Hints:
Elements: H1 3-10, E1 17-19, H2 23-32, E2 41-43, E3 46-48, E4 54-58, E5 70-71, E6 79-81, E7 83-85, H3 86-97, E8 103-105, H4 111-116, E9 126-132, E10 135-137, E11 140-142, H5 144-152, E12 157-162, E13 167-173
Parallel strand pairs: 1-2, 3-7, 8-9
Antiparallel strand pairs: 4-5, 4-6, 9-13, 10-11, 12-13
Amino acid sequence: xxxxxxxxxxxxxxPVFAVEPARVNLGCLAHNLSDYAGRFTxxxxxxxxxxxxxxxxxxxxxxxxxxxxFTACLPGGELPVxxxxxxxxxxxxxxxxxxxxxxxxxxxGGEYPALLGSALLDLVDNVCGEAxxxxxxxxHEYQPGAVLQALRDNFPTVRWVKxxxxxxxxxxxx
Length: 174
């Protein structure tokens, strides 16, 4: 938790936001980034298409402290978390430089409502992330093709690769 943030900071990125909804992961984030205290903003919410809050499910395949301990892709969620829209985060990040240099999305299903609900991707220069196959969220089934189409609608260059049986990795650049 926090590895991408650290890589961005070492390459001169500023401002940097670390978004993490699960309390169990916030401790790991604080520990892993303790050398950078005061240089980043932690947003203790899930990135989503609305700010009404959601309920996440614990993923039995992962252990606490792993960045994917909780997911929006599984039914029966019991962890209520507050949410923030991707556009709100983009608005905050662009107050300093007018643009977002890098956006990384590893949201355990949240990539769908976040990207598909965004109207400000034109302010982002590069996106990378992971999309899950057959993600059932708020009564909809999502497939990676929806993320790829949203990226193609907003970026001239989009690439992706299969990443195991249930996910893809994606990159989009201006």
